[in-house]
Amino acid sequence: MARWVFCSLFLVSALHSAVSLAEEPLAGTETTLDPRALGLSNALRASPSGVSGVYLNPSVIALLPLYHIGLMYGYTGKDEQHMGGVAIVDSVTSVVAAGLAFNYSGINQPSTKHQVYDGRLALAGRLGDVLALGGSLRYLHVEQNLSSRMRGPAGPPALPASGSVQANGFTLDVGACLTLAEVVNIAVVGQNLTAMGTVFAPLSLGGGASVSLFDMWLIELDANFDFTSHDKASAEIQAGTELFIAGQFAVRAGYSYDFFYNMNRLSGGLGYVHQSFGVDMGVASEVQGDPRWQLFAGIKIFIN
After folding, report:
1. 223 contacts: CB under 8 Å, gap ≥ 6
2. 55: Cβ–Cβ under 8 A, 6 or more apart, which residues?
3. CATH assignment at residue 106
4. pLDDT (tens digit, 9 = 90+) per residue, 205-241?
């Protein structure tokens, strides 16, 4: 089933994007992720995901009892972008699950000077065994020396002056996740709801459905709609699957298609889980033109 879904999605989108990319996303506008989410092409909005939930859907941090501390490093090729971050998720010590994350990323090239400071506080809770609700407060500060040729399809990301602060302020994410028959989750999340007027934090609506089979196989299909980055709404579909082997080794694969850029993207990842820690690695790459690729690695410490 999973193989059929992935092949169908890839064939349909490949036909739609037979020509090379005429445009590509602005450097630094990729969604902040951890290595597990990267390996699944962001398809984790409806799955119990701990640290990943702080970035993709705050409600899912309440789905499982856990206390994790995550450290991560990421590199984006082509842009030579470096990212480092730390995140903590605790759904054990209180009836209200909490997540805290801080990430820094930077690009230092002759044509691009880019710095991002991204901090998040997420809170979530469960209403019985069926519904989880969550929200997060995000602080975002972006500095980038954008020239008139780097404005993107919707014009300037924020302020008109080249070299200015492109984003500086707070915004909100709100999400919900519905659990059916203990193995199926359906989720919806609104992100950057207090519109900041920048492509670095677009107003968006995402959703997804996941199924967990035999406590070892996860399949998820997501969609995300971006309302403010371009002159019209754009959409992206994402699919991911994760298989646990012997209860300790994870193998991940993902695929996404961006309808605005006609862009296919493949991803994969590996993970190892011990009683007290876990190690994850994820890689993703566009498959057209001069591809932008990402490599993330991280370690998680399990407190509980």
Report:
1. 206, 207, 208, 235, 236, 237, 238
2. 31, 32, 33, 34, 37, 101, 120
3. 2.40.160.60
4. 999 999 999 889 999 999 999 998 888 899 999 999 9
C-beta separation of 61 from 286 below 8 A? no
Q: Please, where are the H alpha helices in the chain?
A: 2-16, 35-39, 51-56
130 CB neighbour count, 10 Å cutoff: 10
What does pTM read for this prediction? 0.86
- HSE-CB at 184 with a 13 A cutoff on CA atoms is 4
- Under a CB-based contact definition with an 8 Å cutoff, are residues 284 and 38 in contact? yes
Under a CB-based contact definition with an 8 Å cutoff, are residues 270 and 279 in contact? no
CA atoms of 22 and 25, how far apart (whole Å): 11
> What does DSSP assign to residue 26?
P
Q: What is the DSSP string of 43-101?
A: --TTS--THHHHHH-GGGGGSS--EEEEEEEEEETTTTEEEEEEEEEESSSSSSEEEEE
Count helices and strands (H / E) in the chain. 3, 14
Q: How many domains does the chain have?
A: 1
Q: State CA 52 to chain mean position distance.
A: 7
**Residue 72 lies in domain:** 2-302
